Amino acid sequence: MWSIVLILAAVVPKISVTVEGTTVTIPTTCQDDKLTNDSHNAALWMHNYYRKLLASGWAKDPKSKGGYAATAKRMLELTYDCTGADNLAKKTYALIEGCPGDDPQPSPGYSLNFKRFQNYNVPEQDALEESIKEWWGQLGKTGLGSDTSFKTEIASFANMANDKAEKMACAVKNCQKEGYTLVACQYSPAMQADEKIYETGAVCGGCKAINKACSNPRGLCV
């Protein structure tokens, strides 16, 4: 499990998240996804961590000659959408709130990653983290190579790595009566089947054109 430490603040609670020696502090303000603060913030951190790994050329890809996926020219930093009455966090929770037996469809205009555990008592954060790792793991198992076009066999990875995605939200539902645990994450805007997952090029080379700066460490347009 990722290392997460709660930090109490006078006005807005925050948590410190550490992955492989890198620590960030993120405000915790969302209620609509029904997640604990730790789970909510771990989801956001993991997504941006993986996106930065890919964008900076350190994501392993068995189809690439050098063993790593090509760097990304303009990989946006994701933000967690929990603002407004009809936000993405609320929509995502609504998809699994009733413990559906069939896999849900994404909300209109969004991409959806979904996982069903055949166990109703999987801890919330464990379920979320395992799902995110599995979705991203499609890159390491199937590979991408020089063609970064969308492919159905890596659809979950593509949703996470879509360089046009700006917002995300996740939800977890333990369904005791039904005997399973559901995990869903949605992304905006949606990944289109005829699009490239991301544009290759110099790291952060396209950030300035969209009035963004390059993150430190380099990788994401922020």
UniProtKB/TrEMBL annotation:
Top-rank lineage group of the source organism: Eukaryota
InterPro entries from the UniProt entry: CAP_dom, CAP_sf
Annotated signal peptide: 1-21
Name recorded for this polypeptide: SCP-like protein
Transmembrane spans: none
Keywords: Signal
Keyword Phosphoprotein (UniProt): no
Pfam families recorded: CAP
